[in-house]
User: What shape does this take?
Amino acid sequence: MTETTRMHLPTPRGHISASVTEALRSDPGDPTMASLESDGWLGRDVIEDGDVQLALWIMYELNYQGFVDVDDRWEWHPTLLHLRRRLEHAFETQLRAETEEIVRSVCDVSGGIGDRLFAIIDQDAGPPLANYLQRHATRDQMLEFLIERSIYHLKESDPHSFVLPRLTGAAKVVLAELQYDEYGAGRPARLHSTLFAQTLDACGLSPGYGTYIDLVSSATLAVNNAMSMFALNRRLRAADMGHLAAFEATSSLPCRRVAGGLRRLGFDELAADYFDEHVEADAVHEQLAVRGICAELVADEPDLERDIFFGAATCLLLEARSGQELMTRWQLRSPSTNSAAYVQPAVSR
Assistant: This one.
């Protein structure tokens, strides 16, 4: 991993993320390092709290590609992990509270795991973001959408790969099959993260990993953080697979619509390649994730059923919040406090 493919620490959004970035710039072996304890976030909506979400995102990123200006020994530093665990507890507690009704309702009915997962997804009434992008979005709005999505799609599928050694039997085999497709089926040029970087470049945006982290909303950070939290905690492995199932099952038609929007707006044909790829791929992947992974996982460990549904409901909740944040921003004609950076993005070729 060369420095040119890694990012620098992002700009803090408050006291907690500032304390984390300050600590990460120091020597992890310094015995005099101050504690990162802070209770300033207690009682707040942590999903909407940009400071909390950025702090979590920074700590999780140490498990992925890390930062140019951070010593890799920080990844498992006990002081950092202590703060991460406290923030995770608040995040998970709020997610469980906000999804409790739908999780309870689906647990109280009979039927196979697959059928009940699809029932949750079919009943979802999230904002019509993909339809808007297809028919009505301006070029600047499409660029904002791509920037928000770049935070995940430039490391697409990586969170779920952490779960592979935590599964056994059929569920493990099917997850490996799905991930093989996500990672290009043996062709580096068809890595889904590479295809998304190609989309960004074709639209005049920077394809650099993490380039736009200072611009994205707290809702987008929460979308990413939920996947990392589920994947990096073994006890939440079923939630991660439920999240994956809902993510794949809500991807195919929206990708078709986004590709249509890119073509309507006159972007280069390469910009739509990523989305075209997912129209067919995710129609297959949803069956693999729902029936090949989640159903098999619960067949082996019935006690994981509730967390499967919790993960799926979390995916739908946070994707809806992220999509609604974008649409509300556009409706108010106030793109963001960083609007100039959104509509005139830095180009890196």
In short: The chain is about 60% helix and 0% strand. Residues 3-92 form one domain. The chain has two domains: 3-92, 106-343. The CA atoms of residues 177 and 288 lie 9 Å apart.
